[in-house]
Write a structure and sequence with these properties.
heterotrimer; A mainly alpha; B mainly alpha; C alpha/beta; A: mainly alpha; ABC transporter involved in vitamin B12 uptake, BtuC; 13 helices; globular; C: alpha/beta; Rossmann fold; 2 domains; 6-stranded mixed sheet
């Protein structure tokens, strides 16, 4: 009984959180736009939204892992590995259709994610440590696979460039992809059994087991999805910046975590919404964009990211502690009253 | 049936641990032999100690980290604290502060960083993983904000001696620092009440709390010490390179955690020895050294480090499977 | 049983990594009598992966082949100072015969290069120098003044000597960057640039993506920007990409460095009006040849010393090089004058490198 009330309270808060974040987003936009009107230009928004789109769907993958009480630190490396591999294949075989390259990248990402899932689900290694290790392994593989040779602008075929630059139904490909993935993810998480199981598992791992939910399968599933989305993102990334190097997407996982955390995904697991993630990503993208436009160099990026994550986590913690305390007090009063 | 029941003790955790140190040690020997084979000059004692320079800065942090993990807390911001301390030392020096004081300030910064981490973890009851993840970005970011793309060069020669010089003939000062610290930490962990309490806290924090053990205070102290030693590590690195820059110590946190876990410290706390950590330090250090002699790149070596970490963590799972199988074989 | 598994697993991992991914093998036992080859030359660029350094290495390999020496390339894949220092330390332990380095930082790399020299390993710098006390000589691709002034003049010319310009540099500590930059400033002091305003200098760390982002940042922060000087073979194409992506090709002019094959499209499209370079393969060739001659004892780096190489290069048709002294007392060997590339000659050279 307690747990149900706790979760519904937290869910209320999530909704309130989404509202709060939207307000802050609007405020930031106004302030920044005032300071440098370039902010409102179509060009700036297109750039920013293209960046945010990739961040959004990879963050959705990250969100799934965080909801199960884990984390995926290897996404940056998976983006780089998939991007570099596909870039090299494209360089070698320029006749390959971009769609094939996208599929290949997604498969590479799927493989990486599957490995993570197996190590975490079957190998019982804590997600943080696993993905910390695979982060290094995959990143190292980028160097090995590429033999330290970058993929440069001259290597990129026109067809490949169009992946990032083209439009479907009038909107940019990247944004279209993000929207489709968001909708699919929303449906999956909220309206399918497996999706609900993910939340249940994240809520209470022990309890979920008794309810017949297979934790191993859930873990394998979410990390595979996360890897898959990162692999997909890797191809789009290389198309957007027309280059692939050993350092591609270094530290990117932190951006996905920050986006999730801003968007109300609780680090303790069990709580989080697609809408929240999208809002969080947008907000994060706007913050990054504003830092550029106001002229604050990207030296501040790291600290800002860290600070955001810290604030959001502390906020979450204080909130859930407070709710827990209230529940405990109520229970005590109830017991005493008897 | 006497013989069958005698088999049981062999599979208890404590025995595995004892044999873990032995395993690591034999691995160290194997690594040594392979290195000797690949690069015969290693035979000379000077080179052996010279090689330690490449990993000592990381290794001193493994000592407090081991204690921290045994107590059930983790800190992945250590590398960022190192970088930040080095940067602040450089910035102070550039501003005219004498190098000695600048060093003290750098150490204090590390201490404070550890304190902040500890306070957030213990007072706000937030999982250490997440807190230190955020702080990892935050502290390193401070280094970049202060120095940006630049570096503080022209640090005095005397300062460079700290990281690069030798004490007793060919033994680097840094290595001596490591040995001294290892002895200190070893004594604290294995011979004092405080050390024993660390194990208790790690095994079951709640039970410890109910028994009156100052769990939070112990963890806080360990966080502070970890921060301080991370700061020291950053200062030693800065000294060896000869300039203060924000991009040092990249990836150190992974290496340190790998060494600690390979050294037999249990990731969920409650088990581990300093001896194991020291042996693991040497082993990993010489693996790294041996690989770089073959001109294998840094990032590729990280594949090995990551792989070792995973293997180290798979062992409990695999051995548990064997335990079950053996048990069922006994006809239970 | 457990012990055995663990032992095997770890051994297998280490062994397989060393065997499969192993770089070049370390030098074999016997001490070579000083002056007699074949020598082992270690080639250390600022970092690995970029076509500029790949082409330099091609030239170096050519020289090594000519002399029958062994050469291998090692470098930090994160292009960092710390990484490069570790590489040099490893090379000292491997007892290579000579080290050729493009330094990421003039002073930070000095102590470790000095250590190499003291260990009997001659250090020859190329592309980006270490402090002169830490090297035998420095093979400079072009005089700093020539490049700095040339770039500034080129920029002034294409924007009609009027408007805001910015510089996209590589890393702030790289010695060649600092020198070139100071000569750009110097040139801009001249009266004819009175209406040209240098609004910003940003650093892309010689990373393509970072440079691209920085260029985009410049475009956004300075809406009236007329031109960008891309101060390296990574920065210039990145700036061109940014300009193209923003649709400002032709309006926002770009000049800088580049490798013909990489820059071809940009020049033909009109994004980049002109760029400078030297023959990178020659640079590698000269540097590696000098490395060999250091090993044989034929070259000591004294001012005024002359050295003759195996084949003529673009800079010196008679293949003879002399050690000169620069404006700050630094002795160096000059490759030759920089070459200007634009629409008129880009096609021809893009086919070559």
């Amino acid at each position: 009984m307690d747990n149900v009330k706790l979760k519904s309270r937290l869910k209320d808060m999530v909704r309130r959180r989404e509202f709060g974040v939207s307000i802050i987003v609007v405020l930031v936009m106004v302030v920044v736009g005032f300071r440098n009107p370039t902010f409102f230009t179509r060009g700036n928004w297109k750039d920013m939204l293209m960046y945010v789109s990739i961040l959004a769907f990879i963050s959705i993958g990250q969100m799934m892992t965080i909801v199960t009480g884990g984390i995926d630190l290897s996404v940056g490396s998976v983006v780089a590995l998939s991007g570099m591999s596909v870039g090299m294949i494209m360089r070698e075989y320029p006749i390959l259709h971009p769609v094939i390259l996208i599929l290949l990248g997604t498969v590479f990402g799927l493989g990486c994610g599957l490995l993570n899932g197996l190590l975490i689900g079957k190998g019982k290694i804590p997600p943080l440590i696993t993905t910390l290790a695979t982060m290094s392994i995959y990143r190292g593989l980028v160097v090995v696979v590429s033999r330290s040779r970058w993929v440069v602008y001259g290597d990129i075929t026109d067809g490949f460039k169009m992946i990032a630059r083209g439009n479907i139904l009038g909107i940019n490909n990247l944004m279209f992809a993000a929207l489709i993935i968001a909708m699919v993810a929303y449906y999956f998480l909220n309206h399918t059994r497996k999706g609900r199981e993910i939340y249940a598992f994240g809520d209470h791992q022990e309890g979920a087991k008794f309810a017949g939910i297979n934790g191993v399968k859930i873990n394998i599933l979410v990390y595979t999805i996360s890897g898959m989305l990162a692999g997909f993102g890797g191809v789009l990334w290389v198309s957007r910046v027309h280059t692939a190097q050993a350092n591609t997407a270094l530290g990117y996982e932190m951006q996905t975590i920050a986006s999730c955390v801003i968007g109300g995904v609780s680090i303790f697991g069990g709580v989080g919404s697609i809408v929240g993630v999208l809002l969080g990503t947008l907000m994060f993208g706007i913050i990054l964009n504003s830092l550029e436009l106001i002229g604050i160099v990207d030296f501040w990026k790291l600290s800002v990211q860290g600070f955001i994550i810290l604030v959001a986590v502390i906020f979450d913690a204080i909130l859930s502690h407070r709710v827990m305390e209230r529940m405990r007090k109520q229970r005590r009063m109830f017991d005493a009253g008897r | 049936m006497q013989g069958v029941s005698e088999n049981k003790p062999r599979f208890s955790m404590s025995v595995i641990l004892k044999s873990w140190e032995f395993t690591i040690f034999s691995l160290l020997v194997v690594v040594f032999i392979i290195n000797l084979f690949l690069s015969p000059d290693l035979f000379r004692i000077e080179n052996l100690f010279d090689a330690t320079l490449t990993f000592t800065e990381k290794s001193i942090v493994t000592l407090p980290m081991a204690l921290l993990i045994i107590s059930g807390v983790i800190d992945i911001s250590i590398a960022s604290i190192s970088a930040m301390s080095g940067v602040i030392l450089g910035v102070c020096f550039k501003a005219g502060v004498a190098i000695g004081y600048a060093t003290l300030i750098g150490l204090t910064v590390g201490l404070l960083a550890g304190l902040i981490n500890g306070l957030i973890i213990t007072k706000l009851r937030i999982p250490s993983i997440v807190v230190t993840l955020a702080m990892m970005l935050f502290y390193r970011g401070i280094g970049y904000i202060l120095l940006g793309d630049t570096a503080v060069r022209d640090l005095p020669e005397r300062f460079g001696l700290l990281g690069g010089a030798y004490s007793v003939t060919f033994i680097p000062i840094q290595f001596m620092i490591f040995i001294v610290l290892a002895i200190v930490f070893g004594l604290v962990l294995h011979r004092t009440t405080f050390g024993r309490l660390i194990y208790v806290v790690g095994n079951n924090a709640n039970a410890a709390r109910y028994s009156g053990v100052p769990v939070d205070r112990i963890r806080l102290i360990l966080c502070v010490v970890t921060g301080l030693i991370s700061g020291l590590s950053g200062i030693l690195l800065t000294s060896r390179i000869g300039s203060a820059r924000p991009d040092i110590a990249q990836g150190n946190e992974m290496a340190v955690i790998t060494i600690v876990l390979l050294g037999g410290v249990y990731i969920f706390g409650g088990r581990g020895t300093i001896l194991g950590v020291v042996i693991a330090t040497l082993m990993l250090g010489y693996v790294h050294y041996g690989l770089s002699i073959l001109n294998i790149q840094e990032q590729v070596i990280r594949i090995v480090t990551g792989g070792l970490l995973i293997i180290a963590l798979l062992i409990p799972t695999i051995s548990a499977k064997f335990k079950v199988r053996e048990k069922s074989l006994e006809g239970g | 049983m457990r012990k055995f598994i663990a032992l095997c697993a770890i051994l297998l991992l280490v062994a397989s990594v060393s065997l499969v991914f192993g770089g070049s093998a370390p030098k074999e036992e016997a001490e070579k009598a000083k002056g007699v080859g074949p020598f082992t030359l270690a080639w250390v660029p600022k970092g690995l992966g970029h076509p500029y350094f790949i082409s330099c290495y091609e030239g170096a390999k050519e020289a090594a082949k000519e002399f029958g020496d062994k050469i291998f390339e090692v470098g930090p894949d994160d292009w960092s100072v710390e990484g490069q220092i570790r590489v040099i330390e490893s090379l000292i332990d491997q007892k290579v015969d000579s080290i050729g380095i493009a330094a990421n930082d003039k002073d930070a790399l000095a102590p470790v290069c000095k250590k190499a020299m003291e260990a009997g390993i001659p250090v020859v710098a190329w592309d980006a120098a270490v402090d002169q006390s830490a090297r035998v000589t420095f093979v400079n691709q072009a005089s700093f003044e020539g490049i700095g002034r040339g770039l500034a003049a080129g920029m002034g010319e294409v924007i009609g000597y009027e408007g805001e310009i910015a510089v996209l540099s590589a890393t702030p500590q790289a010695p060649n960057q600092r020198k070139w930059l100071s000569w750009v400033f110097e040139e801009l002091k001249d009266q004819k640039y009175a209406n040209v305003k240098l609004v910003d200098v940003v650093y892309g760390d010689d990373m393509t993506e970072k440079s691209y982002d920085k260029a985009l940042g410049l475009i956004k922060a300075y809406p009236n920007l007329k031109g960008i000087i891309g101060l390296s073979a990574v920065a210039c194409p990145a700036a061109c990409a940014a300009v193209t992506d923003k649709g400002l090709s032709g309006q926002l002019k770009v000049v800088g460095f580049g490798i013909p094959s990489t820059m071809k499209d940009y020049v033909l499209e009109g994004t980049c009006q002109q760029f400078l370079l030297w023959n990178t393969m020659d640079l590698g060739y000269v540097a590696a040849s000098i490395m060999h001659k250091c090993c044989t004892g034929d070259f000591t780096g004294k001012v005024g010393e002359k050295v003759t190489l195996g084949r003529p290069t673009m800079g010196e048709p008679d293949a003879e090089y002399e050690v000169m002294v620069g404006e700050d007392g630094d002795p160096f060997v000059l490759l030759g004058p920089p070459m200007k590339f634009d629409k008129s000659n880009i096609e021809k050279w893009a086919a070559i490198f």
